[in-house]
Amino acid sequence: MLPGVGVFGTGQTVRTLVPLLQKEGFPVQAVWGRTQEEAESLASELDIPFSTNKTDDVLLHPEVHLVCILTPPPHTRQIAVKALGIGKNVISEQAATLTDACKMVTAARYYPQLMSIMGNSLRFLPAFVQMKRLLGEGYCGNLQVCEARVYGGSLLSQSYGWAWEELMGGGGLHTVGSCIIDLLSHLTGCRAVRVHGMLRTFVCQSGPAVGIRSVTADDYACFQLLMSGSVVCSVTLNFNLPGTDLHEIMLVGSSGRLVARGTKLYGQRASMQVEELLLSDGGEAVGPSVRGLNGMVTQLRLSFQAQQDRRSWMRHPVSMAASFEDGLYVQTVVDAIKRSNRTGEWESVEVKIQDVDPNHNHRTLPN
């Protein structure tokens, strides 16, 4: 028995996600937009029966038991915490700030029977699922170095919005880098202990004259992560390149390497002269994020199907998903990279959370 879904947001990811949910049999019952006009237009386009610009109208909808939050980062925490508080399962994008991420973790800890996972679909990309399995089987030997490169076009819309503002969660480091940071931790089983990074904003304005508005979010990021176990990661993000996007993750060990280019996986052992194609699932046309989203929705169906209650779910099918605590770790790393950009120094990564009741009565969580 699949739960009814309520979706927050009207962007391109929503337009991709909703048809995938519907294809797998999820009844998408409601959509929220910033304005009523945006919500109604998307509902008509995607055949969603209810639309609104009021948060509570979706959260309290009697047929909505799973909430997908794909809003701008400043809205994420408020919706996620409230949804969990009234008994809804939640899939959410990254929060805007470290404080917001802490509050989301606290809410998830208070309601452990509910699903509370991050929406990083790259974890479900078949190339990375296979990469993680091969790493576990020792394909590369002892892991030593990870390198990630993501190149693409501008992240900015023509008109001013949250994506222009670093403090609102805009920029390549937050929107794309957070997914890469999470993915590297997932693949290696390690977490960053120290980071060093540099951020730049090369496009300071977008489109026609916009008055005094200027871009504060980064469109270029280059950072290094020193992971537990002495694994070294190097990441480059550049969103000022015309032409075809590039998405490459390479893991190098003592006896081989694995490389995911787009949706394909390649490998080369130390004894081989050339690399071999290990996986090609035909997802090149849609790209890694969409192909991963497809895999994530399939696992969601497996998690919810055959349950007697639409709120019930099995953990195993979505066990590879990022938790809210993983989201807090990622936000901590992002903040440390921003500090490093300001100081020019290596910065430590220390994940901390103050256990405060999300309903603000300040009860301490039990041990």
UniProtKB/TrEMBL annotation:
Which keywords appear in this protein's UniProt record, sorted alphabetically? Extracellular matrix, Oxidoreductase, Secreted, Signal
Q: Which residues form the GFO/IDH/MocA-like oxidoreductase domain?
A: 128-258
Provide the GO MF annotations for this entry. Answer: nucleotide binding; oxidoreductase activity
- Per the record, the major location class is secreted
The residue ranges crossing the membrane are none
Secreted is among the record's keywords: yes
Record Pfam families: GFO_IDH_MocA, GFO_IDH_MocA_C3
Subcellular location per the Swiss-Prot or TrEMBL entry: Secreted, Extracellular space, Extracellular matrix
Q: Which residues form a coiled coil?
A: none
Per UniProt, residues of the Gfo/Idh/MocA-like oxidoreductase N-terminal domain are 5-110
Family according to the record: Belongs to the Gfo/Idh/MocA family.
Query: What is the purpose of this protein?
Result: Promotes matrix assembly.
Checking PANTHER family in the record gives:
BCDNA.GH03377, GLUCOSE-FRUCTOSE OXIDOREDUCTASE DOMAIN-CONTAINING PROTEIN 2
Q: Output this protein's name.
A: Glucose-fructose oxidoreductase domain-containing protein 2
The species is Sinocyclocheilus anshuiensis
